[in-house]
Amino acid sequence: MRIGVLTAGGDCPGLNAVIRSVVHRALTGHTDEVIGFEDGFVGLLEGRFRELDLNSVSGILARGGTILGSARLERARLREAADNADELCARYGIDVLIPIGGEGTLTAARMLSDAGMPVVGVPKTIDNDINGTDRTFGFDTAVTVATEAIDRLQTTAESHQRVMVVEVMGRHAGWIALEAGMASGAHGICVPERPFDPADLVDVVEKRFARGKKFAVVCVAEGAHPAKDTMEYGVGAIDKYGHERFNGIGTTLARELEKRLGKEARPVILGHVQRGGVPTPYDRVLATRFGWHAVEAAHAGSFGHMTALHGTRVVMVPLADAVTHLKTVPEDRMEEAESVF
Ligand code: F6P
């Protein structure tokens, strides 16, 4: 079997571990050949690829980013790929394409699959918001990075008796904010799923100060926003899910809390540092398992599916299940978190 692999969309710690695993399983568990397309679907369309052998994936397990490069592709060019699905497979002689990516990439994978291309998807995102899988690799690394950052911010906040507002990634789902906030003992967590009232945050912080505590940390997802009429905030844009999107919530909220509390507040935007660097052992293991199962699924002819973690087992689920909606933070998870603010 000849396998094409690519990484598309935003990068994520663990991508290289999947590529390595695919190559190992294909070459040593089977007698396959593997080619890697550069810069995601762009390389597929433009004919930029290279043969992958065991040496080309040596030493990459712990390396962040992706050795293949990644890019986002406009919808029109994706259509072009779908319209030429058969020709693309014939051009490269591939029997299956394994795209590794997030919601956008899996939607593209589904489009290609519907157009007749044999596709096995592998989900990735630090946001952990892909439906159909309990976890995506990259999430554990992002939570670890964010937790360590908040741990560090607690000590400087205490020294200066400040309120720190830490903005983490998560445009549509607040999994990173929830788990990094819980793990680091943040005193407030704001997620996109549940509009927040700044008065509630002020209440928690004031109660802390009344108990003699001299600092507080609030962890806010980049996609979080205030409930209607609770604070002055510009007009957001409507995204493709029909959600209102605001920019710069960390900075705006820090300013608001400083004003309401009469205490110094500082915003800290973690940004892409959550996506870079070495994946955690958990993410390396999950990524390696996904790679193994993707190759096995290709041999079993489970096209139009993606690897998924259900409990502790890796299973295959239809791509259609993954892309219909995002997996968001349920209300009961927020209640658990709030009980320890
Ligand atoms: O989906 C992963 C993610 O890191 C989001 O959390 C974030 O909003 C987005 O990608 C950032 O994308 P870009 O790298 O294009 O700025």
From TrEMBL:
Annotated signal sequence range: none
Compartments in which it is found: Cytoplasm
Residues reported to bind substrate: T125, I126, D127, R162, M169, G170, R171, E222, R266, H272, V273, Q274, R275
GO molecular function, one term: metal ion binding
Residues carrying the site annotation Important for substrate specificity: G104
GO cellular component: 6-phosphofructokinase complex
Domain Phosphofructokinase: 2-297
Keywords on record: ATP-binding, Cytoplasm, Glycolysis, Kinase, Magnesium, Metal-binding, Nucleotide-binding, Transferase
Major subcellular location class: cytoplasm
EC number annotated for this UniProt entry: 2.7.1.11
UniProt keyword Transmembrane, yes or no: no
Pathways involved: Carbohydrate degradation; glycolysis; D-glyceraldehyde 3-phosphate and glycerone phosphate from D-glucose: step 3/4
Swiss-Prot/TrEMBL cofactor(s): Mg(2+)
Gene3D superfamilies: 3.40.50.450, Phosphofructokinase domain
Active site (UniProt): D127
InterPro entries: ATP_PFK, ATP_PFK_prok-type, Phosphofructokinase_CS, Phosphofructokinase_dom, Phosphofructokinase_III, PKF_sf
GO terms classed as biological process: canonical glycolysis; fructose 1,6-bisphosphate metabolic process; fructose 6-phosphate metabolic process
UniProt enzyme class: transferase
Keyword ATP-binding: yes
Catalytic activity: beta-D-fructose 6-phosphate + ATP = beta-D-fructose 1,6-bisphosphate + ADP + H(+)
Function field: Catalyzes the phosphorylation of D-fructose 6-phosphate to fructose 1,6-bisphosphate by ATP, the first committing step of glycolysis.
Subunit structure, interactors included: Homodimer or homotetramer.
PANTHER family in the cross-refs: ATP-DEPENDENT 6-PHOSPHOFRUCTOKINASE 3, PHOSPHOFRUCTOKINASE
Protein's UniProt name: ATP-dependent 6-phosphofructokinase
Annotated source species: Actinacidiphila reveromycinica
Gene that specifies this protein: pfkA
